[in-house]
Design goal:
Blueprint: H1 4-13, E1 23-32, E2 39-48, H2 53-56, E3 65-73
Length: 83
């Protein structure tokens, strides 16, 4: 999959006008200061590999979209849920 030949072989198997789309996920961790306690959030971002690197890596181009924001307690924090 990491060779140009593989990609060309796959492209040849597709109907005319179709192309392979590479989906890229990335995650990041950020500390949440607006909430009580020691919380952080995992952010999951999505983009496609068919966008050129010079565009995809420029923040002002907005090539990445936030798919999911997962709030998480810090490791070792006490569970405050009362069931």
């Amino acid at each position: 999959m990491n060779t140009g030949d593989w990609w060309w072989d796959m492209q040849d198997q597709l109907p005319a006008g179709a192309t392979i789309m590479l989906v890229i996920y990335a995650s990041d961790r950020t500390h949440l200061q607006q909430f009580p306690g020691n919380l952080y959030a995992l952010q999951l971002y999505l983009t496609i590999g068919n966008i050129g690197k010079d565009i995809r890596c420029t923040p002002k181009r907005c090539a990445w979209i936030l798919v999911w924001l997962i709030p998480c307690p810090l490791k070792g924090a006490e569970n405050t849920d009362e069931a």
